[in-house]
Write a structure and sequence with these properties.
CATH topology of the largest domain: Rossmann fold
CATH class of the largest domain: Alpha Beta
Structural class: alpha/beta
Number of domains: 2
Strand content: 15-25%
Number of strands: 11
CATH architecture of the largest domain: 3-Layer(aba) Sandwich
Order of helices and strands: EHEEHEHEHEHEHEEHEHEH
Largest sheet: 6 strands, mixed
Number of helices: 9
Length: about 250
Amino acid sequence: MSTTIWIGREPFGAAAWMKAAEAAGWNAKAIALIRREALPLAPGGVAVLDQLQANDWLLLSSSGAVRYGLENLLQEWPVLAEMQLAVVGPGTAGALKRLKDRLPRLSQAMIADGRGGQALAQQYLQQYGAAQADSRPLLWLRAEDPRPEMKQELETAGWTVHGIPVYRTEGISEGTQIPAPQEPVVLFSPSGGRALRSRIADPSQQHVIALGNSTAGAAAELGFCVDGVLPFPKPECLAEYLAGTAN
């Protein structure tokens, strides 16, 4: 069994995860798989934000939407802190915890189980059903090129979804770092999995550990051997997982 594990982040972001893996007896290395950047708001996005009301719903389906969208927008649009939150994914929930002092309604957030934005849409519809004539639009802070299923399901049920792109994700497909098949890679997002796939010849031989069901599902679709799923974006979850595999 390999004693080397790769953390799918740049060295700075991987540091705490590497430390957790090393404490569990592994040789940890960082491998940068994605880069993210905030996008400037388009005029249409500004207009949507200016029309928000307290108690409107804010949909969040990625940690990038929190870090590059909500966190940057709260100061200019404080009404965002008064909105109801619908969230999916452990990475998204973990990113929101950094803003707990600025989001008084965070403890009341609807946390969807399952994989991706579609799971969020399904849980939202289970709780609130189809839109009514007086239903307010839903705000979705999103990536530049998100998956369409969540928006499609909600709009089919009559809801208006205003999606504002707030960040861009690019996979880093180039690079000389190529893990050996027996060396597991910790994947933090579906885009990280796609970037890793572009570097290796046979994904079925590559073992990965995924953060959350969405990342795990995407990794399986890409052909990777998914050894485990981490429930929360916490280095100690990785340490616990690795300790369990040693027993």
